[in-house]
Protein: Carbohydrate ABC transporter permease
Amino acid sequence: MSQSTLRQAGPATSRPRRRGTRDATSGWVALLWLGPALLLIGGVVVFPAVALVKASLSEYSITGLRKGPAGLDNYRHVIEHPALGTVLRTTAIWVVAVVILTMLISLALAQFLSKQFVGRRFVRWAIIVPWAASLIITARLFTLLLDYYHGIANTLLVALPFVDQPVDFLGDDRFTLASIVAVGVFVSVPFVTYVLLAGLNAIPDDVYEAARIDGAGPWQVYRRITLPLLAPALSVSTVLSIIYVFNSFPVVYTLNDRNPGFSHDTTITWMYKLAFKSAEKDVGMSAAAGVFNVLLILAAVAVYLRVTRGATQENQA
Structure:
């Protein structure tokens, strides 16, 4: 082989090697940047999920000590538990009622706060306070406000001429769940309102002006422009609300603490009672209920996304 041939072959063989070195280096740099996030996801999401599944497949003593594998017995006990139907019904009512009422009230509030008026900044600050406060403190405050004997709600009601006696908001089965739903809406509205307000502020004024020039009325503008352009914010806030309400423990547990049994428990408080407050005191059974709870949340979010995607495609067609 001549020297000229070797000179031509030299750069041709070294170029892919340099490219491969560059790719490997960029891969390590990307891993270095993503490393903290991956570690956080592994510690906060993956590890607890693995521990939950492992606990659901284990048998525990009444003091919480692991005795050994239990197979699928914990899942079978959860499915055969006599309170499961009541808990699922209460959870469905709780989630649907809180999410729908929160979205409607938040949409109206976001529309109101998007307008210019005197004291708007003060009103915006006032609305965010319930969300910034601790849920335990807020729930405990409502137990005092709705108390049968000393609550301010009953003091005001009894002062009315057509109310003869106080209402047991948190002890009477007719009012307990409705009271819990009202408090759940109260603590959920601020976050959703601010998400929708951000969505409204992102809609350009030019679009509204063009619609008015074309002769569109207020209802047509709202239905044809505001709602479609607000759809991404509505979708995100609804999904987050479903997950948040499903997993809301402090409000339901604090307001329902005085009632025995599982009549007004959701899946999240039922899990806690199975492990620490019920006759079973079974950590493995509680973990199995936790796995069912995660699957329920994923199914609810999947159904919502499928329905909204279908509606969006129909509107675009």
